Predict the 3D structure of the following.
Amino acid sequence: MNLKDPSLFREAALVGETWIEADPKNAIEVNNPATGEVIGRVPKLGAAETRAAIETAARVQKEWAARTAKERSAVLRRWFELMVENKDDLGHILTIEQGKPLAEATGEIVYGASFIEWFAEEARRVYGDLVPGHQKDKRILVMKQPIGVVAAITPWNFPNAMITRKAGPAFAAGCAMVLKPAAQTPFSAIAIAVLAERAGMPKGLLSVITGSAREIGAEMTSNPTVRKLTFTGSTEVGAELYRQSAATIKKLGLELGGNAPFIVFDDADLDAAVEGALIAKFRNNGQTCVCANRIYVQDGVYEAFSEKLAAAVAKLKTGDGMEEGVILGPLIDKPALEKVEEHVADALAKGARVVQGGRRHALGGTFYEATVLADVTQTMAVAREETFGPVAPLFRFKDEADVIHQANDTEFGLASYFYAKDLARVFRVAEALEYGMVGVNTGLISTAEAPFGGVKLSGLGREGSKYGIEEFMEIKYVCLGGI
Ligand code: ADP
């Protein structure tokens, strides 16, 4: 690996104040999904190390919370700057462990860092309230305080940004964090922990625990010192963590699966809709929870849209993310590839047709061709489950009521998108979609300034924005008497 600063690639976990190097006899191997090569190892840790990290976090958090918001803000600002200064190396590490093309990986670093920047700013704007008293001699004060020790569990699809979205508001609020990154992508997490130290973050405020997900998760959820669990991943695991957290009544932040509809009305600008669909569907090779999973196209523009989309998709180059010009990397692993294959086979068996792609890629490994399917219907697996791959299924609809019904006919409710020009329709549809987020005439909605999150089985709470920091705070009511 050719890094400008090789010390950013560390085969170790951070438990409280101590780095634990990977012992080859008891380590987890991390593979490059594009080549299958082992890129390094991280320690296989469990409940004991998680507990130790939580204990240290509880101690250090008090000192961190006692600092002024401006002091915390300065450390976060420095952390943000270091991420941006090292974006090439961080992007490189991200690509070789996750697979996304280098330009996209570096883009994720800048995007991920923007959450640290944003919350460095928000740290100083946590306002309480002074409420008119209910009796003449009383005054009501509302103060906001950090919730305490936070546990975080993050996925492999955004190995940097899914961490910074949680760490930014947690540290800004005055919390400590014990993090378990995904087993497939621990090195991005470790690299930003190295930078956190360099930024002057107190030792022990952030731990990065690698190892058994089940054991680490069980300790995080049962340990009473942990007051909040923030998780991004599948609905299945999210529900399990929710159950496990019940006994200790933790606050939960859950960013779970989606099944995003992408609707093209007949008054849409078709070229813009194709461009939006490419971003919403094929970003990260279709492996994001806000990826368009179902593309609904109105009758009158169905053929024109599918031709334009297929032509654009045919130009997307698939390959190793380290190669120049590659737009689509490999899928993360074999089960991911098999799921994509199953969804395509199921759709074809039930009457869909391939417009573009539709097979494993000639490159082998976990590469799959960028695919467009037409004549897709609600009875197919792609209508109900997240495909999480480079497959764009095109559904046909007649009118607005029909498509709103189909779009909402899912247990998920994260992102949704539609393209239309009529202003009244824009309001009607935006209000009718049962989703936490709606992109209108755009396929890219995530940003530090906006509240990201879902309804229904897509989760609890919001990340980013002025609302995001509230999730890491408790409200305290102080009643002042005898005035
Ligand atoms: P994905 O489909 O994105 O891999 P998962 O929900 O399986 O989604 O994984 C998201 C994160 O949750 C990863 O860090 C993974 O290691 C972790 N995880 C998976 N199972 C458990 C579990 N039983 N307890 C705690 N964490 C888990």
User: Anything to note?
Assistant: The radius of gyration is 23 Å. The first helix runs from residue 47 to 66. The mean pLDDT is 98. The chain has 15 helices and 20 strands.
